[in-house]
Specification:
Number of domains: 3
Structural class: alpha+beta
Strand content: 15-25%
CATH topology of the largest domain: Chloramphenicol Acetyltransferase
Order of helices and strands: EEEEEEEEHHHEEHEHHEEEEEEHEEEEHH
Helix content: 25-40%
Number of helices: 9
Largest sheet: 7 strands, mixed
Number of strands: 21
Radius of gyration: 28 Å
Shape: elongated
CATH superfamily of the largest domain: Chloramphenicol acetyltransferase-like domain
CATH architecture of the largest domain: 2-Layer Sandwich
Distance between the termini: 64 Å
Length: 412
């Protein structure tokens, strides 16, 4: 027998949650075939077969297991099952297990999306390893069933009342019941909740606000977007500008890039920016490291790679560990203004928001009003080590760099 054990996702993780098993007891599995998708408080990891043989499951789906625990065994000495013809196998299955269906291979995210969209996952051709159905496959399928509505029933007979307007196949509706359901929090969601509460209860958190005129940045994007994408293979977004502006501001106000360790303040001579990314399972924060050394093109490429990994649940614990400062963009969801919560143990987080045309004073004509594309900016900071004047000056520096983006190219 070969043991299948829980691998270590990272130094700080000691426990994971077992997902749905892809095979049943007694099933034959091939080496490196997907057995389960285990969930830690930071990422979802694939549990693969360590050998070829007959599977014996020893840990239930949904149970929490310690790193290193044996959750299944594989009998390598078992006889490999004979291959049956494609014409007889479905018949045997139908006769022996009339009420069972063969589950197609699919990621847990793809299964949830298929259920939400009403897609028959069995009809979707998988593009993942071993023909596994992925989230992208479900998005391509795009077939939505008519939802079942509780309390609606079909009248199959014609009313005998001459004055009645009901005819065959008429549908009548009643008031649907008021339902309540509970779902166990995922390890990731529980960890997010724990860290947010810790940030609120530990740090002396305050938020300062400002606004940036996005005219010049938007002009640069319009003029160079096509050539930028052809040259670098990635789109020119706003995040690259804001990350470069953040680096300039952090170099001038290093305490915003510091953190508290015991009774000491730990400073960083580098800038590792955590990017808040929303996923189906919750918020993840991959870290773009050494941003101070990167060009806008390199930043945009890193963000694109992380976004794709986050979408597919492929971010590693190492890619989400660390970070000296965080940027979150609520504007992509339409947020006009918010007070972002610190990402412990960091001392600062910058919130970007939606761009809206507003009437403001024309900087080229004092006393005159002009319509400009404006974005509210928010900086939440730990007042234990960052003074109010520093926080306000930091945000003004970001604003000035965004409004005069040539500063980002000159690094001043």
């Amino acid at each position: 027998m070969t043991d299948v054990t829980i691998p270590s996702p990272g130094e700080s993780i000691t426990e994971v949650r077992i997902g749905a098993w892809k095979h049943n007891d007694g099933d034959w599995v091939e080496k490196d075939e997907l057995l389960n998708e285990i969930e830690s408080d930071k990422a979802t990891l694939e549990l693969l077969a360590t050998a070829s043989g007959t599977l014996k499951v020893t840990a239930q789906s949904g149970s929490d297991q310690k790193v290193g625990a044996v959750v299944a065994r594989i009998d390598e000495k078992a006889a490999r099952p004979a291959v049956t013809s494609t014409t007889t196998k479905p018949t045997t299955t139908a006769n022996t297990h009339a009420t069972e269906t063969i589950e197609p291979k699919a990621t847990s995210v793809a299964r949830k999306m298929a259920a939400d969209m009403g897609v028959n996952i069995g009809s979707v051709e998988g593009s993942g390893p071993g023909g596994r159905v992925t989230k992208a496959d479900i998005e391509k399928a795009g077939v939505v069933k008519t939802p079942y509505i509780a309390g609606v029933s079909a009248v199959s007979s014609v009313s005998h009342n001459p004055g009645s307007s009901l005819t065959s196949n008429t549908v009548t509706a009643t008031t649907p019941p008021r339902g309540v359901r509970r779902e166990r929090m995922t390890k990731l969601r529980a960890r997010i909740a724990e860290r947010l509460v810790m940030a609120k209860n530990t740090a002396a958190m305050l938020t300062t606000f400002n606004e940036a005129d996005m005219t010049e940045v938007m002009r640069l994007r319009r003029e160079h977007k096509e050539s930028f994408e052809k040259r670098h293979g990635v789109g020119l977004g706003f995040m690259g500008f804001f990350m470069k502006a953040t680096v300039i501001a952090l170099e001038k106000f290093p305490r915003v890039n510091a953190c508290i360790v015991g009774d000491e303040v730990q400073y960083h001579d580098y800038v590792d920016v955590s990017i808040a990314v929303g996923t189906d399972k919750g918020l993840v924060v991959p870290v773009v490291r050494d941003v101070q050394r990167m060009s806008i093109a390199q930043i945009e490429q890193s963000i694109k790679e992380f976004a794709l990994k986050a979408r597919d649940g492929k971010l590693s614990v190492q890619e989400m560990t660390g970070g000296t400062f965080t940027i979150t963009n609520g504007g992509i969801y339409g947020s006009l203004m918010s007070t972002p919560i610190l990402n412990p143990p960091q001392s600062g987080i910058l919130g970007m928001h939606a761009i809206k045309n507003r009437a403001v004073e024309d900087p080229s004509k004092p006393g005159h009003v002009a319509i400009r594309p404006m974005m509210y900016l928010a900086l939440s900071y730990d007042h234990r080590i960052v003074d109010g004047a520093e926080a306000v000056s930091f945000l003004v520096q970001v604003k000035n760099a965004i409004e005069k983006p040539e500063l980002l190219l000159l690094g001043v």
